[in-house]
Design brief:
Blueprint lengths: L2 H16 L3 E3 L6 E3 L4 H18 L6 H24 L12 E5 L7 E4 L3 E5 L3 H4 L2 H16 L2 H22 L3 H9 L3 H32 L6 H13 L14 H18 L7
């Protein structure tokens, strides 16, 4: 088989595997590649979450943890109810929600694993300042899980690895030669800057948008979100990498996007009755 026929065969095979695995994100309806089982990813996340709970020091601030759980409960209800009312399959139907507060003052972060496993670090509380701010951060992190971003990233990495290996074979090992000559994974670095980082920024922007929607549906004031990013800029003292080198949009880009979305989201996604 000559190289052209081989390339066509590989391309056909990849398409036959990947095309049936395309899904769309809820609300934004962006097409996604899904090669990784959601059930498998949720199970792995649950095991890692248990390890985190054993390894990290959990805060004894019951008042703040109760606040986190209440925000989470409201979002659980509003998200499920929104999709029910919209006659769309609830993407959180298989979630086993759980919330922890990790006592790390220097860590300004929060995250949500696949399946609804959420952690908030005490360091982010100086940035969120209030309930609406905390809801904005949690809404963003929950949006990553609702939009299945972890599954999408894992699937994309699988696809990139397959394409890179096939290309290396078809080029007679030229990609491997470049890496050996430069003494570093030059091809991987270029892929990261040209494909992975822009793709991750797209996910972050999508999570910003969906997070605002989930916060609004849950009855929180989403106008607080821009204030969070202003405070984050101040806390970081302007030390952020150039956007093209980063997996996240710059704070200024996020503030501009959020300001452009606020009125639309407030009008289109009013609070859902929690009773």
């Amino acid at each position: 088989m000559n190289r052209r026929k081989f390339l066509g065969f590989v391309g056909y095979g990849c398409c036959s595997i990947m095309l049936p695995s395309c899904t769309t994100t809820p609300i934004t309806e962006r097409k996604q590649l899904k090669l990784i089982s959601e059930a498998k990813l949720n199970a792995q996340a649950a095991r890692i979450y248990e390890e985190v709970k054993k390894k990290e020091t959990l805060s004894d601030d019951k008042k703040t943890l109760d606040q986190i759980k209440e925000i989470g409960r409201r979002m659980e209800v509003s998200i499920s109810e929104y999709f029910l009312q919209s006659n769309i399959q609830d993407p959180t139907i298989n979630f086993d929600w759980e919330y922890i507060l990790i006592d790390k003052k220097k860590v300004k972060n929060a995250w949500c694993m696949p399946g609804g496993k959420i952690a908030v670090y005490t360091g982010i509380l100086d940035i969120t300042k209030n309930t609406n701010g905390l809801a904005a951060v949690m809404g963003h992190e929950i949006a990553h899980a609702v939009a299945k971003h972890s599954s999408e990233r894992a699937s994309r990495n699988v696809a990139i690895n397959v394409v890179t290996q096939v290309t290396d074979i078809l080029s007679g090992g030229k990609l491997s030669t470049v890496n050996r000559t430069t003494g570093m994974n030059t091809v991987g670095l270029l892929t990261q800057m040209g494909i992975t980082n822009p793709f991750n920024r797209k996910q972050e922007t999508e999570a910003d948008y969906l997070g605002l929607i989930f916060s609004s549906l849950s009855g929180y004031d989403i106008r607080e979100t821009t204030k969070i990013w202003e405070r984050m800029k101040k806390a970081n003292k302007g030390k952020t990498p150039a956007e093209f080198m980063s997996t996240h949009p710059s704070p200024d880009s996020r503030i501009e996007n959020i300001n452009g979305w606020l009125n639309e989201i407030i009008l289109k996604y009013p609070p859902i009755n929690q009773n």
